Amino acid sequence: MPRHVRAMRSYRRARAVALVLVGVVALGGGFVGFTVLRWRSNVTTLPSVASLVAPPSTPPGAPPVVGRSVDADDPMPGSALNLLLLATDDRSGENAALAGADPGGGSDTALIAHISADRSRVELVSLPRDSRAQIPACHLDREPDGPMSQPRTAKFNAAFATGWATGDPALAALCTISTVQTMTGLTIHGYAIVDMVGFVGMVDAVGGVRVCVPEPLRDTRYTGLDLSAGWHDLQGVPALQYVRARHVDGGDGTDPARIERQHRFLGALVRKVLSSEVLSSPLAMGRFLDAATSSLMVSEELADPGTMLGLAWSLRGLDATDLTFMTVPWAYADGGRYVAWTSDADEVWARLLADMPLAGGAPGGNPSAVGTPAAGGADGGPAGGAAGDGTAGDGTAGDGTGGAPPVGGAVLRTAEDPEAALCG
Question: One Pfam annotation, family name (predicted)?
């Protein structure tokens, strides 16, 4: 293969991986100028994390993170990166046409994206919105000495709502980051927010995502989702319904129950973007780039197109098998009103702090410390910790409702699809 063709494909893969990570959105390939132009003109820049969020204290004895030398344009060469990716259920403007008008707003989905120091893998950890959270005092305006909210214990998505109530999405993200750093000890280096319009645009731009539904999925309470068992090619509103539905018939109505479904869909989207069908098509990649950036809000750390291209190039060797999804190990608490993180969650944060893979041996030498079932709910209820995503070789996804119950901290890579066989 001619060298310029290999280089073009590397650029395409690099930028695709980077934007998929930034809000499960993606950077493209042989169109360097087009990408920079779209990134600069389409995204909305929000304040940096450092402007209003203090870094967490380093745990005693925490090992240094050392990685191989990476591209000089990488924003943090040789260091691990943690990004917070947020999807909102904002229902104003164009979003109202998708899910109905509502004056409120919050974080419907929150994931920590850990990019390893050697840029060889990415782990995405979902934080259930119903998690019992210690929300610290948060800024209510952009002045360092301005008014602050009161610290409190509440559901995790209340952190986003605290800032959102000010009318400033940046304050919503920064309050969420303060909460994440307080609860995990991780340092968040940047953030991105995508709304429902942006999500639908990305899915439609790649021609939809194929999902396996082992059992019928119906939600007559909120989203209107109604899918028969079998394979479905989802675009537009049905795709949004699929990832948002909580109150499906036969389900428990909780957020962790739908997170596995979200992981499978997002994994399939990643696989589709990295497939030759999209990656090798300038037209398809251009549509995806436009959709991915037009509804995206990113922190100042990620707003510079040169920085993003540098990070993208350092990730050029990644493919779908190098992305891992999981949900923080959890158990029901207070009669199911809250989700409580179990002690296994500490092992997850220890691994990320040490820049160790979530699948494999533990920092303390116990290879089964992560990935084992939680002992049970804090009040005697069932344990959880929904597994991550899997995609089949053709970019399809399996749904999480037809298999075994989720187990605490289960980890799956995006190349795996244990349920695709259930749809034939």
Answer: LytR_cpsA_psr
